[in-house]
Design a protein that fits this description.
With about 425 residues, the protein is an alpha+beta fold. It has 10 helices and 21 strands.
Length: about 425
């Protein structure tokens, strides 16, 4: 008899806990009450929390001391591929003995292995290369990663003498100096997701993600009974959503989203130069979330309240060294970053093992209409969004369940 799957079902292929020192391995799934896996575009590596109700003395006998390897593989029924994560534990918290005196509950906090290498090494070398060549070297040499590294190509030669920074600080310094060959905002982010490490521009993620939205179209319809088609769509029904950050016009004006100036001083020639940034002139060249995306404010508002130049940037340059193009990118990067964080929507959905940070999804958010009117999409906030943080929440049992909460962003209206 063919099994019928329901929204939120998940198949846990295996969970393996390994003590690297002793070489001991165990499947602890009977002792696990749940686990959460976090991907975050603002964090360089993955995190996880595993919740134990240990009634066999695993903590004492295995033992668990906060340096174990844990591997998790799971999939949403119907997915062609499984999702795998590998972590190293680094801390046990909330340890409480059960009231019957048998066993204990506790939380294991885990992180990608590369994060532990980051805690024990410093980068002490100079580089003269493009950022897109430097980042993979730091990941391989100092963080010893064997995962895939996906990089958007940069332009300009960077001359860097790293002042004893840890590897992730070094990569973040590179991120702030990176200038894209293709995308005007040079909005580089560095993060890890289930696919590996990503040193990408937000515009690059958006351009690629829009091509691969596929079935990742989420709606707010709650009626999931009726036809087979409706039942299939229920897998993409939002269980809840809220707009956690809205467009702050005063902040945008003050932070130089609409207009800014960059002043440069050439160390070799002792000359000053000035460049002006105007969002109106570059908005059309930015990668759009939707074909109809427009500036987040009207021309009338911008002309009246944002016609000045409240934000200025100072960038030293040296004409005797290769051009790093930072002075041409800093103002538009700032504008793009503020816009990106001005419209954040948080969504709760049924589990999808293939969903990850960096994916683009479509949200069919309903407009506020009367009960007798046919629901239409909210033209202000419905559309394509980029996932910037995501949390898998899985509860193992005879019928394991999976939910995801994610934050996503968009630019423009």
């Amino acid at each position: 008899m063919k099994r019928i799957f329901e929204p939120g079902d998940v198949e846990i292929k295996y969970i393996t806990l390994r003590n690297p020192k002793l070489g001991a391995t165990i499947n602890p799934i009977e002792q696990i009450t749940g686990f959460d896996i976090f991907e975050d575009m603002a964090k360089p590596t993955l995190y996880a929390t595993v919740f134990f109700n240990d009634n066999i003395g695993l903590m004492e006998d295995f033992p668990i001391i906060g340096e174990e390897e844990i591997e998790i593989e799971f999939t949403t029924p119907g997915q062609s591929e499984t999702t795998k994560y590998k972590f190293r534990s680094f801390e046990l918290t909330n340890v409480m003995k059960n009231t019957n005196g048998k066993g204990a509950t506790y939380t294991m906090r885990c992180v990608s292995e590369e994060h532990l290498y980051n805690s024990s090494d410093l980068v002490t070398q100079s580089f003269q290369d493009t950022v897109s060549n430097i980042v993979p070297v730091v990941l391989s040499k100092y963080l010893k990663t064997k995962k895939e590294v996906i990089v958007d190509e940069t332009k300009g030669i960077q001359t860097l003498a790293v002042p004893r920074l840890n590897p992730l600080q070094t990569i973040d310094m590179c991120r702030k100096r990176a200038v894209s060959k293709q995308f005007p905002s040079s909005s580089y982010v560095f993060f890890e997701n289930q696919a590996g490490f990503n040193f990408k521009t937000v515009e690059g993620l958006l351009k690629e993600g829009k091509k691969n939205i596929g079935s990742r179209v989420f709606n707010a319809t709650q009626n999931v009974m009726a036809s087979k088609e409706t039942q299939a769509n229920s897998f993409r029904t939002m269980l809840g959503f809220e707009q956690v950050a809205s467009l702050d016009s005063n902040k945008k004006a003050a932070e130089g989203v609409f207009k800014a100036v960059t002043r440069s001083f050439n160390i070799s020639t002792k000359e000053f130069s000035e460049g002006k940034f105007d969002l109106k002139s570059v908005f059309n060249s930015m990668e759009k979330f939707d074909k109809t995306s427009q500036l987040p404010n009207t021309d009338d508002f911008i002309d009246k309240f944002a016609s000045g130049v409240p934000k200025s940037f100072f960038v030293p340059v040296d004409s005797l060294r290769p051009d790093n193009f930072i002075d041409t990118a800093v103002a538009i990067r700032n504008s793009f970053a503020v816009l990106l964080n001005s419209n954040i929507v948080r969504v709760l959905i049924h589990g999808d093992s293939g969903l990850k940070v960096g994916d683009v999804v479509t949200l069919d958010l309903p407009a506020m209409t009367g009960t007798t009117n046919k629901k239409k999409d909210d033209k202000m906030i419905a559309g394509n969004y980029l996932i910037v943080r995501l949390r898998h929440m899985i509860t193992p049992s005879t019928k394991s369940k999976h939910q995801i909460v994610f934050d996503c962003v968009s630019i423009g209206l």
